[in-house]
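User: My advisor, Dr. K., asked me to get a structural model of this assembly before our group meeting. I'm new to this, so sorry if the format is off. These are the inputs:
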Amino acid sequence: MKIIRAKDYADMSRKAANIIAAQIILKPDSVLGLATGSSPVGTYKQLIDWYNKGDIDFSQITSVNLDEYVGLSGDHEQSYRYFMNDNLFNHVNIDKARTHVPNGKAEDMDAECQRYEELIRSLGGVDLQLLGIGHDGHIGFNEPAPDFPTITHCVELNEMTIKANARFFGSESEVPTHAVTMGIQTIMRARKVLLIANGADKKEIMEKAFFGPVTPAVPASILQMHPDLTIVTADTI
Ligand code: F6R
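Assistant: The format is fine. Below is the predicted structure of the whole assembly, which you can bring to the meeting.
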C-alpha cells in the first residue's frame, strides 16, 4: 500500500490524474474502472485539461463504472451514466460505445448484474480501478455487512449513504433506495487500485480502513490486502 499525501483537493486531483494519465500513456488500450461522487470530479477535470493539450488520448480506452442507481435511466441528471458523460466522456475522445455503466433500468436486475460481471471478465479485467470511499467505509456501493459481498450485485442503500447522497437530489426521499454495484471481489481483481479521499470528515474512516483490522464492517479495509493499492489523500491520514 502506497500512501501519497497531497496538500489539498486540487493537489490530490492532479496527483491522481497523473497516475491515470501514466496508465493511459503506458497502455493506451487500458480498461479503466471509474467512480462517481465528488472525490473524482477534479481528477476528471485535470484529465480533460491534459486531453485538450494533446497529452493524453482516450481513443483506445475502455471504461467500466463501479455502480449505478436502480431506477434511474442514463438521461436522469443524477444517474451515474449522466455524471460520467457530463464530467468526463463528453469532453474527451473516448468511444462512448466502450464506456460501460450498469443499466439501472434493466427489467431483470439479477440478469443485469450477471451481464456486467461477465462483461468485465470478457474485457480481460480492469487495469486501473479508481475509487472514492464513503463515510461508512463503502467502496462502490458495498456497504458494511456481515460478509464481503463478492461479485456485481444489487444492494439496498443504508441511511448514511442516502443522507450523504441527498445533497445531489432535491431531497432525501428522491434518492433511490437501491443500486447495482461491482462487488468486493470484482474490485479486488483490478490489477491496480487508486483510492482518493479528502477532507477532515473522511479522517476517521480512512484510519479505520487502512490502519485497522480487515473487516466487512469497513468494506474498504479489504484493500489492505490488494497487491497494488495507491492512496492519494488530502487532510485525512
Ligand atoms: C461512486 C461510488 C462511491 C463513492 C463514495 C464517496 O461511484 O462508488 O463509493 O466513491 O460514496 O463519495 P464522495 O466522493 O462523493 O465522497
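One thing worth pointing out at the meeting: The pocket of fructose -6-phosphate is lined by residues 35-39, 66-67, 132-134, 138-140 (CB under 6 Å).

User: Perfect, thanks a lot.
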